[in-house]
Sequence to fold (1088 residues):
Amino acid sequence: MRIALCQLNYKVGDLDGNYSKILKAYNQAVADKADLVLFSELALCGYPPQDLLDYPHFIDKCYQTLVALAKNTGETAMIVGCPMQSELKHGKKLFNSAVVISNGKIEQVFSKTLLPNYNIFDEYRYFEPNDVFNVWEFNGLKIAITICEDLWDLDDPTLYKTSPMSQLIQLGPDLLINISGSPFSYKHIENRRELMRINAQKYNLSLFYVNQVGANTDIIFDGGSMFITNEGVIAEECEYFEEDFKVIEWQPNKEYTSHSHNYKNDDIALIYNALKLGLTDYFSKSDFATATIGLSGGLDSAVVTALIAEAIGVENIFPLLLPSKFSSNHSIDDSIQLCKNLNLSYDIIPIQDAVNTFETILRPLFKGTKSGVAEENLQARTRGNILMALSNKFGHILLNTTNKSEAAVGYGTLYGDMCGGISVLGDVYKTQVYKLAEYINRNGEIIPKNILIKPPSAELSHGQLDSDSLPDYNVLDAILYQYIENQLGPKEIIDLGFDSKLVFKIINMVDRNEYKRIQMPPILRVSDKAFGIGRKMPVVGKIN
Amino acid sequence: MRIALCQLNYKVGDLDGNYSKILKAYNQAVADKADLVLFSELALCGYPPQDLLDYPHFIDKCYQTLVALAKNTGETAMIVGCPMQSELKHGKKLFNSAVVISNGKIEQVFSKTLLPNYNIFDEYRYFEPNDVFNVWEFNGLKIAITICEDLWDLDDPTLYKTSPMSQLIQLGPDLLINISGSPFSYKHIENRRELMRINAQKYNLSLFYVNQVGANTDIIFDGGSMFITNEGVIAEECEYFEEDFKVIEWQPNKEYTSHSHNYKNDDIALIYNALKLGLTDYFSKSDFATATIGLSGGLDSAVVTALIAEAIGVENIFPLLLPSKFSSNHSIDDSIQLCKNLNLSYDIIPIQDAVNTFETILRPLFKGTKSGVAEENLQARTRGNILMALSNKFGHILLNTTNKSEAAVGYGTLYGDMCGGISVLGDVYKTQVYKLAEYINRNGEIIPKNILIKPPSAELSHGQLDSDSLPDYNVLDAILYQYIENQLGPKEIIDLGFDSKLVFKIINMVDRNEYKRIQMPPILRVSDKAFGIGRKMPVVGKIN
Fold:
């Protein structure tokens, strides 16, 4: 039997566009003499469709598109992910389904049992869990069809009371399929490969696993679809971070050798590729072609500029240098050098006149007060205004350059440097941003060396350094990681050997800056726990 | 038997504060010779605790606080809501529980079966549904204890496959209790009263219903705890929008007359009270005392000012008038009149110098372009900067004045008039804002009449009116309501009699402005479908 893995990049809600992509890949698979063609979870509507699923007219349109797709099928069967209306009297109105279509019609529907509802997932918001277990009989074989999380209950204890595979295995399947919408995180790829290998071995079944690729706003999907033998050998693996298509000649008892894709199992390279894909898709899927960014001479804006240059091309980038009286010469020189290295044109708009005007205007109200955060933020917001003016005038997307360490402790100005359509580094700790810069420079200097070695500074007052108000980034990031990713409490973090006063200080900074983060742009997610939709903390409340 | 309904205002996460409140009310109930004292759902941690529940140290602290509370109880029993660790091998780690404590210890735990996971609710993110049904035996009575949604499955078909009451009723209970965290919406009070009455009648049981009151960030709880007889008579009803405490002498066969609270069943009065409570609690629970606001001379800022004056007192409000060259005289006069009516001091800061400086600075980049949205937004952002400078300097919270109609169609400037710590009117359509203004003026002019009768304008260019780019607000709001609250698609809305071109235009505006709304401050929720955590739409995606 010939089975095609179609790893495509879907746009959420774009039923016509997704339909065309799916049909094209199906037709190619037919031409390649495939018997069965696999597409990923909710491929037809793109994953995650979010509250589009609450709209009955959208569900109708999904079904009509599915029927139209079915009309284009012949003997070669297709399995495609689609939301399907429940016909049960009770329970939620939808299932997250894998629909088998062939010979012009919908043949059979299999639905997801384990609905993830943690972190960025909220599938129980929309779907009823399936509790009817069948195999699909095709070409004399019994095929077990599962959807993503259905194979993720190998932990003991598990989050779920039902195990779909322990039901399905009793029906004696010959083959296991999993259609998936499994998002990227830099720790997730290796977990996913391992978990799928264990499934194949545990159930002694060949496993065809197909994932989606591409970003939908902040959530990035890395692909990595696989064919794994019943011995747990990854015999075929699709590319990461790009569309791919593979037809596999499968015979039950054939021996396969490992052909797993030689992807770079390196956190920083993975993050780099994920962010690049996230940016490319943010622009292409929102029909914006050009970007603007404020170059501060610091690390974050330099890394974002290098990334966006890779993603959409230097000709589409319109950076601004926005020096104030506190900007050091090296900030300007370093930014200019960055642009030269990237072959990027730029403009310089000194902001001091605008800042002075604000200070004059505000003098009557500020009389008798000491210059401080309000004055510092005025500079950042003046820059924000100018960048947004450019964005509004020419239709550029402003890129946000806030990194995860800053976002965590609130070291940034709301409506100032926290502006932007998309946050590129909001899920990348400062220590990781340094490594990203080194990675970007792996084949020669793109980010000027001086940016890498000078001490970080917001340059909002004379001689200001990040280290004036923050601990060393190595320490800061280590504490943040324990608090945010590992969800440890202050006592547990102190028990790891960190200074007690510092731990409380940092955790309190994280807690009380939720009000800023909640107004941040969507953050490209690369870690297991990003700020944004996957971390919902009270804005007003007492957290620790 | 004497039963106390304790309707308290909890702060999310503030275990010590909530503990003290609960204990004080319990002691008062003991002094009042109560046998049983009821507190609301998740009272100990406040509702909704969100991802605090993901932190094991927080769950431990909840348990320790519960144990400490138990130590303070005697013969009078208490039922209090608290997250409780599951002891099951599989499933989520927590239950949403009603814990019975008395005589110094935890006596019995009852947990929630129906976990709402739609709109603003995401309880399945944290909790395992209960599937073990028991009654609590107390003073010779069998008491059925349910939690909020457990009584909300009267629809046919229902969202759920299990019905807790159809299980519990088989155990022959004598009395029904429901502890609840049921948020306000202006349509919800009457639904809730009716539904609880139907439950009491259907199961022929007296029902003691206790809700929380007060706002946690954007979610407002209105209280309205009740004692309903088995014949469906509301025999006692707590106040709305404030803490309340009632001890009820209950006898199984006693006749009770209706004593339901004579609350104003009027949408606008309800919204007014809810917003006032939302504001009061936003300030008190976040430990901020003072507010600033930009007075445009328009309706929205006037209504917000009147509301905040009621909520935190005029002495704590520092409004700014920020006229530009496009501001009409009446804008300034009307704002001054508003301040006079409220006995409110204000400052005037003309923004034109700053706008001119920006235009000068930007001239080289904008050369050859026509003045338009970029220039208009510069004015709004200049105002935003000044207001935020005041906020940063003096620790005032900036109030956002965007209304729901504007938020829906993106008629507002990101980082300009969309700034603020909390959005007061973001869930109130413009047509409702007019009615709010009339309500505010019910005992005499607070909002100057001219503000109510002049045509709405953002005054960002000469002679600009909202009606230049938007349809009449009556039509706009009616279409928005069908799309947002009723989740109809374009064809269904057109079928209601609206102009086809207009419907598509408006829906497209709603869809493509998700990128602005996602960066809005938290929005006080007063409707069944507010922007914010209850409506998760793709930012990048094709929606219609």
Q: What stands out?
A: Chain B has two domains: 2-263, 270-466. The CA atoms of residues 297 and 331 of chain B lie 4 Å apart.
